[in-house]
Amino acid sequence: MPLLKKTPKEEEEDGDPFAANPESRYRRRATLERLVGLAPFGRARRPPPKDEDGDGGRARRRSEDFGLLRRLPGRRKASVEALAERPVPKRSSLLRLALGTRGRRGSVGERPPTVESEEVSDGDQDGGGQRQEGEVLGHPEVGALLQAQALGPLLPPETQRSLESSCIAAVKAKVEVAVAQELQLSEDTWAEEASSEELQEGLATRVTGLLRAHVDRAPQITPEFGMEMAHSLLGVLVAFLHSFQRKVERFLEAPGEATPPDGATGRAIALVNCCPPFRTFAERLAQFGHPESEEPRRQAHAALDKVTRLCNHVLTQRLFEDLKPYFNKLMKRKWLTSSDAFDTIVMLITSFTQKLRPLRPEPYQVLVSEVHRRVLIEYVRPLLQVRLVCTSAKMRARVAARLGDEARQLRELFSRLDSASPWLDSVVPRLRELLVLEDTAALQMEVGVLVRDFPDVRRKHVAAVLDVRGLRSQAARQEILGVVQDLEQNETEPGLPRQRAFFSELTVAREVRCLPFHLPRLARLSRLRLRRPHPQRPGQARL
Length: 543
Hints:
Layout: H1 8-15, H2 22-35, H3 63-66, H4 77-85, H5 91-99, H6 115-119, H7 122-137, H8 140-143, H9 157-187, H10 196-202, H11 204-217, H12 223-253, H13 261-272, H14 275-286, H15 294-327, H16 333-337, H17 340-354, H18 361-384, H19 393-416, H20 427-436, H21 440-453, H22 459-469, H23 474-489, H24 519-527
Helix pairs in contact: 9-11, 9-12, 10-11, 10-13, 11-12, 11-14, 12-14, 12-15, 13-15, 14-15, 15-17, 15-18, 19-20, 20-21, 21-23, 22-23
């Protein structure tokens, strides 16, 4: 019996169990596609990625190639074999496919490969998330409910201030104990052989480190809290510096039992080197802008200045003890013909400054400026003591020439030492001019310049220089000294502290009056012997 050939429509209906219900067929096909890792039905397909082994990997294929509706038993064996060769996705891959990217944890390298990860990169997934977020926030109905503003504090202001005050008080109490312990541990090592670096590391660095730890963290909460914390720690630093000052004062002023001079110098250098880090940190705490930080800042600087002066006194005491006998030889007749005493002074100062190399730049500048001032004071002192009186114009020229030459050497010396007080270099040249000038008006003008440059100069100082000059005319003296007297009376603020004090440390016992005769004549008179009156004889009658 001849076989009847079926029409294509009838053949498709025999192999398709969902021919009667097309809608069920579409849902079934979409479900099968998702299970095998295919894109939704009807979407555009991407070219299959190439595998490194060259076998083509797991490539997406069109739905009709798999014959989804031909997988019933007995239908298209070739299509079933092709389906069996395709690797089935793991259960975890299907779970990740259902949960999406939110269920994933770990780094990109730790994620197992999935169907979606083979086609979509991490950058594409992140971009998709951002696009989804932008779509949600940009939706008119959602955007109307959102307001971009900062969240307010969770605690009431009173509660927050109370917590901040409690925290600051606790930190202050803790830090006070810690810095006191550091100071005590450091003081126990001052009498030992410790280098300057060890003392600085053991005191300045550790103390500032304890304070810095809280200063750096507090502003991260709020700027106001950081300012209050800095002000509180500035008070802690001031109390510490006062205690440090007292301990240094007791240590340096205590009579040394068997401490060699070099050991005292090393300890003084180590202690004064602690001041710059403390000074810098006090400035940093004051810069937080608390309205009451100026007074603690001033107290901190005052304590450090006192420590610096104490250490400088110890460092320079031995120097000026060695210089004293050579200063006593200046401004005498032998000084006019020999420069040995002055050359020794320069040599001792140069040798002393070689020992100051361990000093930090700041205390070094302070110390060299102080040495500069004291050296010039000791140099001018014998001049004002009127050890030498000029008896002629030629002698005045010799004295003025020697003063000018030695003033130049002192200026060059302290310039090499980087002194921060160049204003001191003009004191000797000003006094020298009072010996050289001849006209009274020129002398009056020079005295006015001297008073302008050195406001602490007084009438007795100028009178002593006029005595060295040998000025005997009382009228000329009164005219010249009247300039100083007028300038003293015109001072509007006599109690104002002088920034350039020099002559105030040079005392003149009394105003010396120049005698109306030459010293050689006085010397001859002193050698005359006065004849003693003979006693009357008992029998001699009186006339």
